[in-house]
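WARN retry 2 of 3 for item q-0093 after timeout on previous attempt; input resubmitted unchanged.
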Amino acid sequence: MNIDEQIEREIRCIEDLTVEIRMLARKGQLNIAKQLERDLHNSLDQLEKHYRRKKLWSTADGLNLQGKKAKVVKKVVEMA
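OK item q-0093 returned
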């Protein structure tokens, strides 16, 4: 699965969790809603990581297109 697919999957998960949390809150099932809120937080963290990785890869691709391969690109990619 490529990075864009991972981002899209995480976004769909966040949307689903948000809807479910709202429904549970309206029903008064706050304990379950709080559990899902933690899942939502984890999904947001994952989404942030995916976006950072995507940015690093696009930076590496840009440097590669400029002919700057070698260690600079390798170090940037390893940091991800």
